[in-house]
Amino acid sequence: xxxxxxxxxxxxxxxxxxxLPVIGSFLPIDLVAQEPVSYAGIVIRPGDGTITYVYVPLxxxxxxxxxxxxxxxxxxxxxxxxxxxGVCQIQETGCDVGTCRKNVCQTGGRxxxxxxxxxxxxxxxxAASPLGASGSRVEPGDIDGWSWSPDEPLLPEIEISEIPMxxxxxxxxxxxxxxxxxxxxxxxxGAPSEGVELTSYLAVTVVLSGVAALALVLRFRRQAxx
Length: 226
Description:
The protein is an alpha+beta fold. It folds into 2 domains: 2-31 and 195-225; 36-191, Beta Complex (Ferric Hydroxamate Uptake Protein, Chain A, domain 1). 37% of the residues lie in helices and 22% in strands. It has 7 helices and 9 strands. A hairpin with a 5-residue loop joins β1 and β2. α1 packs antiparallel against α7. The longest helix has 32 residues, at 194-225.
C-alpha cells in the first residue's frame, strides 16, 4: 500500500511539472512580469473599417500631438494660437488645410465627422480629452485614440500590454512601429497576425500536454493494478 501511495505522489508531481508551463502561458501578463512600461500606444480609426495600432517608445510625458508626431504616421495639422493645434489629416483620411482652418474638417451637419481625440482611462474605456491633444498629458503606459467620427469613439478597448504585438514591434522596442488591420482583423500588407500564431502555438501546447497527462494516467492505472 505504501509503495502505491509513493507512486501516486510521484505521478501527481510529474503531472504538475507537465502542466505548469501551460498554466503559466494563460496567466495575465501583469501577473507574470511587472517590468515598468517605457512606451505608449495609439489606436487610429479612420472610419473605413480599418484600425491602426501604433507603438511609440516613451520615457517622459508628452502631449497627444507630440505623441502622434513621434509615431511616424502621415499627419497634417494647423495651429490655432492659444487653442493649440488641430488635426486635419491622419494617413489618408481628413481634409485640406483650408477647410480644416475654417471648421476642422466638419461640413456643418451634426453627423459630419472630424478627427476626435480620446484617451483610454484606468478601466480601458475611451473618454474625450477636455484639454484637446495639445493640452493633454500622455505618460508611458497610456493609450491615445483618434477616431474619424462626429461623436462616439468607436475604438476597440485594449490594454497597453497588447500594443507591442498589435503594432508588430517585435524585438525592436527603441523605434516606433505602425500596423494596420482590415475589418476582418487581418494585417494589411504584412505577415499573418502574431495573435493567430500565438493562439495556434498555445492550442498545440495544450493538446500535447493533454496527451502526456493521459499517458501518465494510464501508466499509473497499470502500475496500481499490478
